[in-house]
Design a protein that fits this description.
Strand content: 15-25%
Radius of gyration: 25 Å
Largest sheet: 6 strands, parallel
CATH architecture of the largest domain: 3-Layer(aba) Sandwich
């Protein structure tokens, strides 16, 4: 199938047209989606495991004997993988472990004024729920990206859910990856029902405090809804369909650029792929390469639908290219220019940056060590990708000596009275009087 795409000249667009060129596709039937998810959540909260079994039968076509993965299933999963596959998982785990270990935060303790000590300390989130999707493809890499930092942080309860296959088992690579990251409680659950189970708990699934992991629109909607419920669970970060923006000049190799766009497009039909380039000739060559490479890839139907809403934008210079990227705020940003490192400091909004021609986004998906769970849909303007810190809480500690409150207390009294909160002022004043 031949790829036909319009090349957009940025300089010929007005302000409104520029915003339109960078606009993500709107989610269809959002109201109906959230109504459907609310119904699923309510049913899981009401009927627990029974509802989970019904939804597995309805959505996955599986009558589950056991919701939880058994030791027998773990053993069978290990036998199903080759030595090469297990070695690849181990190497990815090792890199993710090393990079996330380096993110351990240092506590802070300082005397901010005489007799007044402030500290910042860290504690793990006690119970975490990890979601590994398996819609268009199982993602053992997602299990690694979630399980490794949860283990390093010291989260006591670590629960993982992943949808069952038609035979009622979870993908063996997902099971092996999770087990090698010390996840032992895995449930054969997918979709909004899995999120509801981990958020509120059932007879079998433990309740967790925070939920992590990518998923389809139903999963995302469920995470949003349970995070807004006081009895539910917090979410890791807001996300939508996966996306990549390639920023390239005339030195970029069109086959590399096309490959990067297709790698992201195969995630789903609503994946977003964008090329911003200073070279119209490159954009034209990329279109030809898309046709050539798509012909030899297996997910042709998904690729062709995703590529239909790709954006190829020509800009006058690299400064404009970076501006366009910052406006778009991509989940993944690939820099393929003559001097890509020189652009990094100018990037303000991106989930993760891939520098140079030999750094495809695929490497970050699997094994560089950086986390691949990233903000999408423009949320990179305000959110970061997952890190060790997301599995921990910061707490502050304050301690004043008698000399400390004598020195700083009058300031607090004045400020409390300024705000008209005399009980606040009194809590300090009674102590000051006791020291006279």
């Amino acid at each position: 199938m031949s790829v036909t795409l319009r090349i957009i000249d940025w300089n010929l667009l007005g302000s409104a047209e520029r915003l339109s060129a960078l606009k993500r596709p709107a989610q269809k039937d959002a109201v109906a989606l959230f109504d459907g998810v609310r119904s699923i959540i309510a049913d899981v909260r009401s009927r627990g495991d029974a509802a989970l079994r019904d939804f597995s039968q309805r959505f996955d076509g599986v009558a589950l004997e056991s919701l939880e993965v058994t030791e027998t299933e773990f053993a069978a999963a290990t036998r199903a993988l080759t030595v090469e596959q297990i070695a690849a998982l181990d190497r990815a785990i090792d890199n993710v472990q090393r990079f996330h270990e380096a993110q351990r935060p240092a506590p802070i303790r300082m005397e901010v004024s005489p007799g007044v000590v402030c500290e910042q300390i860290y504690r793990p989130i006690e119970a975490v729920g990890l979601y590994v999707p398996a819609g268009t493809a199982p993602l053992p890499s997602a299990a690694i990206m979630l399980a490794v930092p949860a283990r390093i942080a010291g989260c006591t309860t670590r629960v993982l859910c992943s949808p069952p296959r038609k035979d009622g088992t979870v993908d063996p690579a997902v099971l092996v990856a999770a087990q090698r990251c010390d996840i032992t409680r895995i449930f054969k659950l997918g979709g909004a029902q899995a999120i509801a189970a981990m958020a509120f708990g059932t007879q079998s699934v433990p309740k967790t405090d925070k939920l992590y992991g990518p998923g389809n629109s139903w999963v995302t909607a469920a995470k949003i809804l349970v995070a807004n419920d006081a009895e539910g669970a917090a979410l890791d970060l807001p996300a939508g369909p996966s996306e990549v923006l390639v920023l390239a000049d005339e030195t970029a190799r069109p086959e590399f650029v096309a490959a990067d766009l297709l790698a992201q497009a195969e995630h789903s039909v609503d994946a977003q792929v964008v090329l911003v380039t200073t070279s119209r000739a490159l954009a034209e060559s990329v279109i030809k390469e898309l046709t050539v490479q798509m012909a030899r890839l297996s997910r042709g139907k998904t690729l062709s639908q995703a590529i239909e809403h790709a954006r190829l934008i020509v800009v006058p210079d690299l400064a404009t290219a970076v501006d366009v990227s910052n406006i778009y705020a991509p989940e993944h940003l690939i820099l393929q220019t003559r001097e890509p490192r020189s652009l990094v400091n100018r990037v303000r909004n991106a989930g993760s940056i891939f520098v140079g021609p030999y750094t495809p986004e695929t490497m970050g998906d699997y094994c560089t060590g950086a986390n691949h769970v990233l903000p999408t849909y423009g949320f990179a303007r305000a959110f970061s990708g997952l890190s060790l810190a997301d599995f921990m809480k910061r707490m502050t500690v304050q301690e004043l000596s008698a000399d400390g409150i004598k020195d700083l207390g009058p300031t607090a009294v004045t400020l409390a009275n300024t705000e008209g909160l005399d009980a606040h002022a009194n809590a300090v004043a009674v102590r000051l009087r006791s020291l006279q």
